[in-house]
Amino acid sequence: xxxxxxxxxxxxxxxxxxxxxxxxxxxxxxxxxxxxxxxxxxxxxxxxxxxxxxxxxxxxxxxxxxxxxxxxxxxxxxxxxxxxxxxxxxxx
Length: 92
Hints:
A four-stranded mixed beta sheet has the order 2-1-3-4, covered by helices on one side. It is of the alpha+beta class. It is built from three helices and four strands.
């Protein structure tokens, strides 16, 4: 089968990583963190947060989009986190 039509192998939720790119004092970031904490706890997914003010590369890339949520290093969403969409991304 052509590689174009092959699906990437599914990863178990426990093998995933969610990253919240945020800044201090950001109320949208606090809201995003609550959703991430809930979904990741339910699924057993590890998550981390990174402060955009402490990383120039993150600042340059995401400054106008924070909070930004990455799933396995790939941008999943920004500004608002939809609980159902995040859950689906982690279980598909």
